[in-house]
Each structure stands twice: as C-alpha cells, then as structure tokens.
Write a structure and sequence with these properties.
The protein is α+β, with helices and mostly antiparallel strands. It has two domains: about 1-105, Sandwich (Immunoglobulin-like), CATH 2.60.40; about 125-485, no CATH class. It contains eleven helices and 23 strands. It has helices at about 1-25, 90, 105-110, 120-130, 130-135, 170-180, 225-235, 270-285, 295, 445-450, 480-485, and strands at about 25-35, 45, 55, 60-65, 75-80, 85-90, 95-100, 140-165, 185-200, 205-215, 240-250, 250-255, 265-270, 300-310, 315-325, 330-335, 340-350, 355-360, 360-380, 380-405, 415-440, 455-460, 460. Strands 8, 9, 10, 11, 12, 14, 15, 16, 17, 18, 19, 20, 21 and 23 form a 14-stranded mixed beta sheet that branches. A hairpin with a 6-residue loop joins strand 15 (about 315-325) and strand 16. The longest helix is centred in the N-terminal third of the chain and has 23 residues, at about 1-25. The protein is globular, with a radius of gyration of 27 Å.
Length: about 500
Amino acid sequence: MILIKKYINNVIFILIFFSIKNLYSQEIKVQIFDQNNIPLPYTNILNLNNNLGTISNENGYFNLDSNQHHEDDTIKFLHIGFKTYKITFNELKNIKNIILEENIINLSEIFIFQSEPKPLEIIQKILYNAEKNYKTKPIKQKVFIRNRNKGKTKKFNIDYKKSSINELGENFFDKIVKKVPEKWLDYSDILTEVYEANVGGDSVELKINPIRVVELNDESLNGIEDLQKIFNEKLNSIDSTEYWKFKSGIFGVKIPKPEIKNLKDDEIKVKDYSNLVKWKIKKIKLSNKKTWDFLYKPKNYQFSLIGGTKINNEDVYIIDFEALKKGKYNGRIYVSIKNYAIVKADFYMPEDKINKFNLLGVFMSTNEKIISIYFEKLDSFYSLKYFTETQSYNFGIKRPISLIKKKENGLFDKKIDEIKVNINADFESSNSYEYFVQNIKPIKKSEFKSLIQKKTFKKINVDQFNKKLWKGFSIIEPTDYMNNYKKKSGNLKN
C-alpha cells in the first residue's frame, strides 16, 4: 500500500513539474513598428545580459523563447535611423507591439564643418576607403540562412500533339495539368558555421559546417519528380551514338546527359550550399559594380544629404538617392562620418526600371527587387551582419515544344523517339534570401585551412513549418504565410 502511494505521488510530482515547465516555456511574439505604424523589418534584437540575439522578419515580427532569458534581462532594439530602445524581458512579455522613434539629426546642430558636406564627395570617399574598411580577415561565423520561393500559377495548359513513348502519352500530360498547384512554397532554413578567409585581392575562400538544415519542397505537387524520373531514365538509356534534342519552332539544342545524383532524400550536397553562400557574399562586396551601381555610376543618380544619426555610438551620414534616366535603384545609405564606411544600405528597383523580356512566345519581367545590407563594426573593420534580397517575377511560355531522340547516322541523324506538345503557361514567383550573422570571431589561418568541409549533410524534410525543430536555436521568425502553409501530397499515379 505504501509503495502504491509512493508511486502515485511520484507520478503527480512529474505531471506537476512538466506542467510548470511548459507553462513557463513560452514564446514571446512581438511586432515592431515606426511612428507611422509601418512594420520595421530586420530590426536587431539583443539580450545585453547573455548576448543572445535575433532579428525581426520582413513584417517586423520576432519571437524569444522564455527558457533562454531571465525576467530582469535587458533587451535592446536597434534599427538604423531610429532611437535605440531598451526594455526588460518581463515587460516585453506583456506587450504585443513596440514602436521605435525616428532619429534623424540636423548635422549643423551637432557638427561644425569647414564647408557643407557634399554627397558626391562622400560617395567618392566610400570607394576610396573600401579596401581598408572591409578588409577580410579569417573569421568564423554562426549564420542563419533562409532561401524561400513562393509562387502562383496564373495559367498552365498543355496541348498534346504526339508521343512515341507510351509512358509519356496524352493521359500522362493531362495528369500533369491537373496536378499543377494554384500556389506553392519551397524553402530551406539552414543554421551553419561559415568560415571565411581572404585569398588575395577581392577573392574569398569559404567553407561551411552545417548545424541544422530544414527543407520544404513542393515540387511533388505538380508531378515534376515523377516526370523527372521517367525523363532521366529515358535520357540515360542511350548509347554513345544517341542523344536527345530539345526543339521549339526553328530553334533546337542538344540536351546534355543528366547528372546522376547519388544523394538520399534526406541528404544535401554541402558544396552546393557553400557555393550559393559564396556567390551571395561576392554579390554584396563593394567591388561588385552591378550591385553597387549608384556608387560606381553616380552621374546616373540624384543624391541628397538629409541628415545624420548614431549607430552603436558611431556618427553617420544619411544619404538618399534616386535613379535618373540611366540609374537602376532608389534608396538610402548610412555612411560613417569618421571613416566613410557604408554601415547600412536599403535600396530597390523602381517600377519604371523593371526589366522585361518578351521574344517568340517566351516572356519574363522583374516586378520587384529589394535589397537591404547591414555591416557591423568589429575592431578596425566592418563585417556583414545581415543581407536580404527579395525579387518577384512574372514568367511564362506560349510555344510548341518537342523532345527528339536521335541516333548519329552520317550526314542525317536518325529520329528514334519524339514527344510533341504546345505549352501555354504563366506564373508568378517571389524569391527571397535572408542571411543573418548571429556571432562572429576572428580565427587563425591555420584553423581555416584545417577545416575539412563535409561532402553531405543530413537534412530534415517537412510538410509544414515546425518551430519545435528549432527549439534552443535563434532563427528569423517565419512569415504567417510560411507558418500556415501545408504541403499537400501529390502523385501522378492517382
């Protein structure tokens, strides 16, 4: 009897313990606004007591796990061009919104200049001091990266003509049309260590060591995976004298034999991720004339020095720029008064600069392009803190398409198989890339050289965003669309 009572008491204690733990293990979700009630994206949030930090998402939302913070911890909010805001974690738990106050200062009120600073002279000094300000030392960073693509099908029709391949007949293409989703979402979230070293000039060598990779891939919705398997089987079942040719109208091109990937469904190729990160890092370097068009071609822009502000106790100029006839972007940059480093840049492609392409039934237009870059000062140089880029497109095709299998036969190659359809498709797509550096520290060249990058890494495939997978990690808060989106099952055999 005593043993039974003791057992019951232990069970009750365990239940109470976990109830209390769950009660206090809650997430604090808050949205940040400016004084005009406009959400402030990519605001830096930092716990001054333990240096744990995060960043608000594109809609100004962020969350903090109560397990990682104490009630009397001070939480700091930093958004360039706005006054720094501080609040205790206990106070933060009881509010839903935070409003930051704009902090633009009239330079003449706090600085004495021999002559009024001229924006074009500041632009020239940015480039002159770039190598010194952004000189890359060997560093190790902990980085969260989100690569997201969401799309919408506006139109998708396949007019079947003929096929000599039974598996790819009219019924097959009808099923594809039915499986094409109205909306789709693909994304990869990766938390990784990034090792970076300068290898001469502007060249950077980069290695990554993934910590966690989570992916949602909606390709199966439209039957692409099934189609790809069949095509790959057909494309690979050729001898040295055979080849496939893609043809549309009078245009034709040989199709290279597809690369055979020996990856499992739950694996990624680390080198692919590393190359993408390297390409993105190279893109935002000040030596990239395409990204920093307004620095290298200032005559194509109208610049205005609108005032100054403080960023981490550093005085900065605030310069707005607007594209003239040959310019590409409108935006704002924040430039250190002391050393002429760009601390932050926000710019976008105005509507009248949108790139459009329409030729022979193939069209594509860029509807939106927004870039935000923030460099954080570390000792004597500036290092990337975060980088975001969003692009939206319209693209489509209205043309006859043929896939032809041929065998080399002297002057006139012999046709073996042919698939012929007319495609009429119109899609909308929005791609976003977010790169958030959580911490950074200098390392020795020997540490960089000794790191051996893995060939593959296990990833977690999901059908819906799952916060539990990121418990204990700091990530960018997902948008409501990501939170609510659930992948549907899709199979061509159904």
